[in-house]
Amino acid sequence: MKVLRVLNNNVVLSRDGEGQEVILTGRGLGFRARPGDEVDAEAIVRVFVPVDGRDPDHLAEALSMIDEEVLRAVVIALGTAGIEGRESTRPTLAIAVADHVAGALDRVRRGQVVEYPLRAEVQTLYGREYERARGLLDAINEHVDPALGPEEATALALHLVNAGFASGDLAFTYTMTGVIQQMLAVVSERFGLDLDSRSMSAARFITHVRYLFVRIQSRRQLGGQESTIGLSIRENYPEATRTAEQLATIVQLRLGEALSADEVSYLALHVARMTLDAGGHGAG
């Protein structure tokens, strides 16, 4: 690969073998390099391949504006924690995490402690991301000084969750977290259940709702007209359907988006499974 543009000592814009512009990071990649020079392949730590229509040049500039040592720590840590391979299609994740880490390091140096109010919700709703975030935090701390506190795993987990959404809007992830908690509370109250969010059915419900949010954000909800399967779900699980309609109202109030009939039906199916597994009467 050849250098197209040098952003700083550690970030260069290049072009891969298929002619696609890519962003390369690695210590010293851009040092004394000029457009047209061959890139030292052994010095490359991460290859970012923007595939979502974002401008590679703009993303490269965003990466170059982050403190070089912080960016290096985050890029290496993403690999160490098994979150990213050497090639990544998510430069926005590295940018968001590095920007957060830079701010967190500044707060530590100034003696400021931040308590994240969503810690319990994140651990409950996003258990997989939280565990990966703890590993990421440990890996980051191997390369930064001072070390960041364990509370930062909450924020890092939210960034990992957020990476699954098209807009990359962290505010949307905060809203989603609150809505999921509200949904679970409604189901618990309606059926008189003490739901275990770690149960398989609850985990399936949470996963379903997360993908529902992805569909809402990308405006690709399931079926505009109710399908035969959707009608069958409504007939077999009337009480779960009434609950799902209540959940759909919450979504519409919080996100301003009405759910399609099929989306409500599939919500009902997950409500029924969750309540039946917990000893409720989701089918009644």
Automatic annotation (TrEMBL):
Where does the record place the PRD domain?
61-170, 171-281
**Does the record's keyword annotation contain Transcription regulation?**
yes
Q: Which SMART domains match?
A: CAT_RBD
* Swiss-Prot/TrEMBL keywords: Repeat, Transcription, Transcription regulation
Mind telling me which residue stretches traverse the membrane in this protein?
Answer: none
Q: Name one Pfam family in it.
A: CAT_RBD
Descriptive protein name: PRD domain-containing protein
